[in-house]
Amino acid sequence: MICVQNVFFRYSGGSDDILHDINLTIRPGEFIAIMGPNGSGKSTVVKLLNGLLQPESGKIEIDGYNTANIKERLAIRQRVGLMVSNPDDAIVGSTVAEDLAFGPENLGLKPQQIKMRVDTALKMVSMEDKRGYPPHLLSGGQKQLLSLAAIMALEPDYFILDEPFAMLDEQSKKKLLQVLKQLQQQGRAIVLVTHSMEEAIWADRILLLADGRILADQALRRMVGQPELLRLAGVQPLEVSRIIEILEHPGLPSIDPELIDAEELVTHLCRYRFHV
Amino acid sequence: MTVNILEARGLCYDYPDGTRALDHINLLIQEGSRTAILGANGAGKSTLFLHFNGIFQPTKGTMKYRGQDYKYQRRYLQQLKQRVGIVFQNPEYQLFSASVRQDISFGLLNMGYSSREAREKVNLMGEQMGINYLFDRPTHFLSAGQKKLVSLAGVMVMNPDLLVCDEPSAGLDPANTERFMKVIEKIQQQGSTVVISTHDVNLAYSWADQIYILDQGQVRAGGKPEQVLADKDTLAICGMQQPWILECWEELKKHGLIPAHQPPPRTKEELFQLGDRDLIGKSLV
């Protein structure tokens, strides 16, 4: 379990706190989306979760290990896989396969196990044909796929992903969201930083950040049903929520605001407005 | 008379290992137009853009700027880069000054503007982009989204003849995407031609005059958005979805809720104004 208690953070030399009194619990098997405007502190939160940054005050524990204790960092990083938003910051190998092997090698795995992890990760992101390819010749989106695969090869208990799909096409995005869902079903925790509600609906819970503070931390459907709250945190509600707002008419039965896709909306309309 | 500001003819590009990244690309960008380039990851969008200001030289084929073939000589390319401004997909490739203000001023000062003129232009751009509050911050302390905004501002402030943005909305929140699109609109009204690449078909459909779809280094389709994005087969081959506005319009037309002769709406406001709202309302009761 990840436990964040009363955390404040400021960058060294900075005069203001970037994060204010953050409290958060992430349990194994949970899928959480962190959302909020640019500069709200999302990336700072995720860098705190694997001990890359240290809180100014407050405490962060991963399965009981304190991120402030340097001796416990190895145990933390074996459990927490962090994918940073800029893929160029994470690529170290001279070929795609070497890059994927880097993490498992540092975990001390045997060559056969490393090969298996590399093969599985390549398959997950459909990049088997790029095994021997130099990473610097990959496109921006392919680099993002590679850094996501590198985290998968580590098989951590907690996947912390900072805007992993920002440069990806729809097909790759959908496939990877399915992979994340499978990992969740296997008991891994997923923390996904995103600007897109279409991605966030794969999560069970949404955490809204604004100006370094937690604005709300609620179950997915409850959050979907509050488009005004989402807008307050600079998040664009789902298209279906916007359609529901338009379809609301005085005198007509109101529509459940917590619907998340067109299929649910059609079923709801058939039942309560068409009486089919 | 319409002027072709940029033209690619039979453009091919091979990476040093022999991989063909672009395969006989033909495209035409008219002055003052808005072009969106769509395509899956690895389709060749960024590689194509790097040909637009001469960073890459084609293996085969030609690039033309205002009807003249590109010359791959230092002096010509320097001039070309002042006219064709590229915003890279990854802002880290573009930001290098100590502060945000210095970074946005860099291009202007290199173009010969005085410090005062540069300051005025940078202030105005900062206001339009809503980033004045970042001016004194070190660039490396910015969040990823803020870096993206600063890199866009640094190119747009030079008011290039042709503005090329590689996935400008990647990493931006909705409010900043909207703000950026408004600045683009303004720049375009002042005479610039704009080309963007994006995975966002909804944005491309509502914004562009023409769309090209790239797939495995080739142009699979090109033309008006309502024609290119109506072709579901091509979209499926390229792993793309139809814009929701177009999909809704087709469904409404199929059910007789809007007249069949109506041209497709380009924005959600146009969609909501379509047809007889009473008719749609009654059918829902």
Using the 3D structure, state the CATH architecture of chain A: 3-Layer(aba) Sandwich
Distance between the termini of chain B: 53 Å
**Terminus-to-terminus distance of chain A:** 46 Å
Gyration radius from CA atoms of chain A, angstroms: 20 Å
Strand content of chain A: 15-25%
Figure out the total of helices of chain A. 11
Q: Report low-confidence residues of chain A grouped into runs of 5 or more.
A: none
Please state how the strands of the largest beta sheet of chain B are arranged side by side.
6-7-8-3-9-10
Q: What is the tally of helical segments of chain B?
A: 12
CATH superfamily of chain B: P-loop containing nucleotide triphosphate hydrolases
The CATH top-level class label of chain A: Alpha Beta
**What best-fitting shape of chain B do the alpha-carbon axes yield?**
globular
How helix-rich are the residues of chain A, as a percent range? 25-40%
| Largest sheet data of chain B | 6 strands, mixed
CATH architecture field of chain B = 3-Layer(aba) Sandwich
CATH class of chain B: Alpha Beta
**Given the helix and strand composition of chain A, which structural class is it?**
alpha/beta
Number of domains of chain A: 1
Number of DSSP-assigned strands of chain A:
10
